[in-house]
Amino acid sequence: MENSIPRVNGPADYTDEMSDKRLAFIREKTGVKASHIRKYSFDPARLQGNIENFAGVAQVPIGFAGPLLVNGEHAQGEFYVPMATSEGTLVASYNRGMKVIKESGGVKTTVVDDAMQRAPVFHFLDAREARDFGIWVTENFENIKAAAESTTSSGKLRNIEQYPASKMMFL
After folding, report:
1. Rounded to whole angstroms, what are the CA distances from 8 to 3, 14, 20?
2. Under DSSP, is residue 68 helix (H, G, I), strand (E, B) or coil?
3. How many angstroms separate the CA atoms of 65 and 167, rounded?
């Protein structure tokens, strides 16, 4: 068997059959039997475009917190919030916070922008290199924008904010 994970182009890649082939490949290469990840309740065909080399799912415990009282422009009322975590007391802590919010009249929400933020950090040998990288980012924004937008049909790069911190540059 070669070293490439089994893959086919198109919808046939998102099937139970291909998932089985990948798990067999991993078992042969590593000795790991990951049969527990094959227990899921959806059609793998729905995943096309969302994951590559699909082999199964990981289970994360889900608890509910709430109700959270929301006074929003697009949502009003009491909402129970599902939370996937394995961190002890996290859901209980959120639940207490939601109780306080409800007792104080609820949370008032509004949409101020349709955007998503990311903050990658780049490490350099010194602050001057970090500064020079920031200058390069500014000078090459249009090229970065074109490269970023070539990977999605819906996302648009609007700006890149820079936050230098010593020999690091946060974008």
Report:
1. 15, 9, 13
2. strand
3. 41
